[in-house]
Structure prediction request, 310 residues.
Amino acid sequence: MIDFSYNLSTELRESLEKIEDCRRQVILTMLSPKSELTLKWEKLAEKIYGISVLGKDGWEKGQIIKILASGGKKRRSREKRVISIRRAFDYIHFNWFISSEEITEKTVGTIYEKLCIGKYKTGNEQIISLLRFVEKANEHPIVKAGIIYNQIINLSPFDQENLVMASLLSYLFLNKYGYNFRGFMVLEECFLKSKGEYQEILVKTKESGNITLWLEYFARGLTEQLEKVVREISKENFQNGKSPSFWDLSERQKEILSILENPDVKMTNRKAQKLFGVSQITASRDLTKLATLGLVLQHGKGRSVFYTKI
Prediction:
């Protein structure tokens, strides 16, 4: 059952126009492959950092960068959480970038379970109704993403992790409609700049049932964040806290990427060993680095793990 209302105010429409202008600039700006990879990696760390601050987890950005760079091999609780959020983002990017498929409760359940927080319980009428409404609404993708974020926070339909799911599902809708801005946009940065206003507007919209104020705030924050992104990429002015060598690939790693350009090919540790005459440890290091940099996607667990090109 849908129990909220909104209208497309003048302010909201103006923000959407500015966002469209920024989107064109982001899409059309040429970056070197290394620069694009660096910025995407930095923005992923910022997304996870922003989620942690809003959720009062107390992580530091440097810690998150370190965990992402290591692949979370130690598997302590913090490492597991960071890596699980990263895998949820990977799933959204790999499976839902410009998709004609309908986002259903099953999609939500897949993302929820990738956070390693237990089995998703199907039949949640709040989520089903919300998804059905947003999918059928003839609205701008930014408006759809704003509705999803607001309602997941205000309804809190999950047993836990409602804030993380609000972010992930917003990115899901943005990706589906081609509004991921090359992975450079960080929703959470908008909220952290005005955390008091962010919390106040969420409370007000929950009490009133009218979420226009939130949609205005959401679009205004995105506009400011995207204008910053445009400035960054026009000057290639960004930092990632890693040494230049972190981004360097060996000839063998480059060859693995070349092989995986064929969408029908999968790479396993054993296959890498045979192709390049290397040990299991060396093959594992190569594949882990490519996955850490976001160049390949890991599937499965244990001995059934394989990799594909993103």
Q: What stands out?
A: The chain has a mean pLDDT of 89. DSSP finds 14 helices and two strands in the chain. The beta strands are 296-299, 306-309.
